[in-house]
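Q: Convert this sequence to structure tokens.
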Amino acid sequence: MIRDILNIIDLNFILLVFAGSLTGLFVGAMPGLSVTMATALLVSVTFTWKTHNAMALIMGVYTVGVYSGAVTAILLNIPGAPSSVATTLDGYPMSKKGEGLLALKTAAYYSFLGTIVGLLVLGISAKQVAKLALAFTPMDYFLLALFGLTTVGSLTSKNFTKGMLSALVGVFISTIGMDPIMGVSRFTYGNINLQRGISIIPVLIGLFGFSEILYQITLNQGKSEALDVNRDKISNKEIFSHWWLGIQSSIIGVLIGALPGAGGPVASLIAYEQAKRTNKKPKVPFGEGAVEGIVASEAANNACIGGALIPMLTLAVPGDAVTAVILSAFYVHGLRPGPLLFSETPEMFMVILAGGFIGSIMILILGLTVAPLLSKVIGIKQRHLFPIVALLCIIGSYAASTNIFDVLLMLIFGILGFLMRRREYAVAPMVLGLVLGGIMDSNFRRAMSLLSSSDNVFGDLFLKPITMVLSALIVISISFNFVSFGRTKTDK
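A:
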């Protein structure tokens, strides 16, 4: 594996990962911008590039972007990404006590550790998971995609019902266009632009980019001030003394990241709670500036990168919103994620690993040098920032297919995403439904077609080991979500 990765790496590849990493650092550190939005924009920009180059840039944004949410969490008490929410609990109190540099260095080191652990697990386990996936029937793929939809409770902890409705809307949108089986138009209403279906790029840009601009404009938040970073000498020995907690949190991050729909926010919070339970007597109480809180949160959310890539690469099921965008990038470049990826285009797996490992090194380089300087940059006024982002949204939507209709789609989904956020409907489940809807549609109908001549329809459909396991997982997932939803209503 190491030799294959080294064969891919050259100066051009490293520079592209660096460019993506630098972009991810600034985007992730800007309150109101997200790594998902940046990745969606890059998919539209790089769709004419060579696939290796596009993935190098995207992996740089992904790896460093996840880490960079910690910068604003520590300096501004504003998580740059949902996965950095737990980092604010101890990061900002440390900054207020003059320990901002210690907090930033801790975040960088353990984000690096988490990324490495996640990618190692990905490299070791991905082919084995792919071999298992080769035994999947069309019905199994349908159930797997359905299981991905049932995990929307982890994407929308506030309201499972709203999350499921959002996902179902995404599934419906995925059916618009030409029927892949019968070749007839569905829900196009005579509009020729809808014959090819709803292009995922303008949808992603609208839901995560333009809607975020509209949403942030309507927020009446007071101006946050970045705290100065104390330049006192930091003891690396003190930071590295929590390495075992970092390993534990990384493993939690990988396991949760591998569950479709879970991701960094869930992993970081669970790892944080686990750290509180296992560290009974920290030097500083959790919530008041405990270094252990940053270690757990940052190791876990970056380890999710490798975890979330496992189902995306091996099963074509995105592990989180960002991997949903990366999955669309694969399709845009004509690749087929899933078990056949390793037999048809095995070099792409090595490209992903190489980009991730170089990106993890960039976390250290940029996190220890550039991140402390961002305390002066992240105070940029939104009225200067948002017009630039809006222009990029328009250009990105148009460039994907040079069709003005896609710009209109981007605006429509931007407004839709804004209205959903105002009503507390998360947009991430819609993306999940949009990506998984096509998989569900084609595989379910293919399964029904294969069973048309069967003498034992029920047995052939459900009485297979993989099918039974997936069915049980779906029942457990739905039950767990409704139990959690019931508890939430009772607490209120």
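Residues 2-491 form one domain.
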